[in-house]
Design brief:
7-stranded mixed beta sheet, globular, 7 strands, 27% strand, alpha/beta, 5 helices
């Protein structure tokens, strides 16, 4: 289930209608995914952000959150490729419906090899470029490293249920 930035459930049809209106108003669609290990589950969050000051929807975003117990996600490369694949699949769905959409994919990887994700940044970038999309990585990848990241964190309800 998708949610608005205010955490209100939104049907996919209504969400796509808002995205289409945004695209028609020459707005950019920015997609990012992030993940986190929480209580033996990996939480994945996909975010779709609408950017473009000429649009009525500038600054709005939608997100969806799901859990995976797949142990393969312990491997950072596997998890980064899963995040990238999620974002590309959303981008492909939008591009299929709205071929003229201006879409950019954001990935929570660091360009520096000093960081764990740094050694995989060229792999992730190549995957995105190979699929025909523009991209941003840290520190410019706000859809993944800020918006999606914020929603990977456990909610207060989750914390009370599992840690009280």
């Amino acid at each position: 289930m998708w949610k608005t930035g205010n955490k209100v459930d939104i049907g996919e049809t209504e969400m796509l209608a808002r995205i289409f209106e945004h695209i028609e108003q020459k707005g950019k669609v920015v997609i990012g995914t992030d993940s986190m290990l929480t209580n033996k589950k990996f939480i994945f969050v996909n975010a779709v952000c609408l950017i473009g000051k000429q649009s009525n929807h500038h600054g709005k975003f939608f997100f969806t959150r799901y859990a995976s117990k797949d142990e393969a996600n312990k491997n950072l490369l596997v998890r980064l490729l899963k995040e990238t694949t999620d974002s590309i699949e959303i981008a492909n769905k939008l591009r299929e419906k709205y071929p003229k959409a201006n879409i950019e994919i954001h990935m929570d990887v660091n360009p520096s090899s000093k960081f764990l994700s740094g050694k995989y940044s060229s792999t992730v970038i190549g995957y995105i470029l190979g699929c025909g999309y523009d991209y941003k990585i840290k520190p410019d990848a706000y859809a993944a490293s800020a918006v999606a990241d914020r929603h990977t964190r456990p909610t207060s309800t989750y914390i009370k249920k599992h840690y009280s």
